[in-house]
C-alpha cells in the first residue's frame, strides 16, 4: 500500500510539474525543479563573525556614514555587530530571527544585507509544500537584484517565464539578467534591473 | 424707409450672418490631435523618442531604442488594474480585500477624451490613482502606524496616505506608489520632501544600506550601480524645461514627455505591463498644464539683479536654458556622469516655482532653498553664480526668487 501511494504521489507530482511549468516555447523546460527552492524550513544559528569592524579611516570623517565603531556598541538586539563597507557605510546589525515563526514569512539565515545576520523576508510561501503538490517555493531577489539579495520567497506559477537565472540570457542593462518574482505580474520573470526607477 | 430702400442693408446683414456661420467650426486643439495620434499610431511615439534622445549610447537611451518597438514593449499587455486608496486610518492594519475601484469607468483601454479638458482630467486622476510602481517593501511600514509617520507618509486633505494605493495584481494585492506619492505635498507636482523611500527599503530589509542614506525627498532612480540619488523634482514647471532629467537626457516636448512617462512605468513593472497610451499621454498633458498655476516673474530691483547675474543661463518665460557643461557648474556630479542618464551636461532647470523648493542642486546638496543657495558660506560646493554679490543686491535677488 505504501509503495502504491508513493507511486501514485510520484505520478501526481510528475503530472503537476508538467502542468505547472508549461510552454517550452518560452525556454522553460517542463517538469524541471528550480535550482534553488525550500523543501523544508530551517532553523538559523546565532553564530556571527566577531572580527572587525575594519572601518576605513576616510569613512570616519563622513558624518553619519559611520554610526558605530565597535561591536560592543550594538546592544539593541540579538548578536549585535558593527558591520559595513566603503559603499554603504558602517552600522549595527542584529539577528532579527532564528525560525520562521519569528517572522510573518521566512527567517532567512544569514540573509542580512551584506552580512551574516538573520532577517525576516516576505513572500507567499515558506516551503515547497505551501505551493501545492509538486510545487516549489523559491527565494527571489527584489527590484535591486543582487544588491539587496533575497527579499522574499514565492511559489512558482504555471505562468512563469523562467525558473532559474540560467533561463535568462541576453542583453542585460547593467548586470547579468536574473529570474525573480515580479509582484506586479504575479509570476517569475527575467529581470535585468539592479535598481528600479 | 421703404422695403426697396432697406433691401441692400438687409442683404449686407444676411451676408454677415452667413460669413459668421461659415467661420463657426473651431479648429481642433493641437494637444488633442497629438494625443490621439500618439494613442493610435505607435510610430508617433517612436519618432518622438528617437528625436528626443540627446545621447543614444547611454543606458537610458539604449534600452529604449532597443525595446520601445511594437514587437517588444508595444506588445506588452496594457495595465488597467483596480486600485484602492490607502487611507491614514488604515495604518497598522492588514491589506484590504474589498473596496477596489475600476477608476477608468467604462473607458476602453486606449480611449482618450476628445478635448483638452477631458484629457487633463484623465491625467489628474491617473496622477493620484495609477500605480506607478509596486513596492512590496511598503508593507513593512503600512503595518506599523508609527513607522509610516517616521518615513514621511503623511495624510492629505482627504485622509489618503501620501497618494499610495493598494493595487490588485495576479495572485493578490500589493501596495504601490502613484505619481502623487513623491510629487505632491498637498500641491500636485510639488515634491514631497518628507517622504523617505530609502528608509522604507531599509526597514523592510532590517538592514542599513546605501539607500538608507538617501534621506527624505531623495531617491536613486538609476540602476547604474553608482550611488547617485537625486532630489525629487518639482513637476510644476515641466513645460518650461528645455530637457527632461537633470542630466539633460531627453529634449523636452509633450510627446517626448508622454514617452518618458510610458517607459518609466514599463520599466517599473519589470517590463510585465505597459500603461495604456491614453494614460501616458493624459499624464503628460496634465503635467504640462501645471505651469499655469505658477506665478509669473515680477519686475523690480531683484529682477534687475537676476537679469545681470542669472539670465545668461536662466532665461525667457521659463527661466531655463540650454544645457551647460558639467564642469562649468562644479556641483556634485555623480548624477550628471551617470552611465545611465549622463550626457556630459547639466540641464539648466527652470526657476519657475523655485520658492517652494527646499532641496536644490541635483543631489539635493542645498537644503535651505534659495537663501542658502546664495549664501557665500554655504557648505555645498559649485554653482558659485551670485555668491559674490554685494549684500544688498543678494537680498534683493533672494527676495525676487522667493516670489517665484
Would you kindly provide a brief summary of this structure?
The complex is a heterodimer of chains A (197) and B (404). By secondary structure, chain A is mostly beta strands.
Largest interface: A-B, 49 and 42 residues
Global mean pLDDT of chain B: 90
Q: In percent, how helical is the residue content of chain A?
A: under 10%
**Cα gyration radius of chain A (Å):** 20 Å
**What is the count of structural domains of chain B?**
2
Instruction: State the order of secondary-structure elements of chain A, H for helix, E for strand.
Output: HEEEEEEEE
Share of residues in helices of chain B: 25-40%
Structure description:
- The complex is a heterodimer of chains A (197) and B (404).
- By secondary structure, chain A is mainly beta.
- In chain A, 10% of the residues lie in helices and 25% in strands.
- In chain A, strands 3-4-6-5 form a four-stranded mixed β-sheet, with no helix packed on it. In chain A, strands 1-2 form a two-stranded antiparallel sheet. In chain A, strands 7-8 form a two-stranded antiparallel ribbon.
- The longest helix of chain A has 19 residues.
- Chain A starts with a helix and ends in a 6-residue tail after the last strand.
- Chain B is α+β, with helices and mostly antiparallel strands.
- In chain B, strand 7 and strand 8 form a beta hairpin.
- At the A-B interface, strand 2, strand 4, strand 6 and strand 8 of A face helix 4, strand 2, helix 9 and helix 10 of B.
SSE order and pairing:
The complex is a heterodimer of chains A (197) and B (404).
Chain A: H1 2-20, E1 78-85, E2 89-95, E3 106-108, E4 119-123, E5 137-142, E6 145-155, E7 178-182, E8 187-191
Parallel strand pairs in A: 4-6
Antiparallel strand pairs in A: 1-2, 3-4, 5-6, 7-8
Chain B: H1 3-23, H2 30-40, H3 42-52, H4 59-67, E1 83-87, H5 116-129, E2 133-134, H6 139-142, H7 145-150, E3 160-169, E4 172-177, H8 179-183, H9 197-205, E5 218-219, E6 230-231, E7 243-244, E8 250-251, H10 254-268, H11 277-289, H12 301-309, E9 321-325, H13 326-329, E10 345-348, H14 369-373, H15 391-401
Antiparallel strand pairs in B: 1-3, 2-4, 3-4, 5-6, 7-8, 9-10
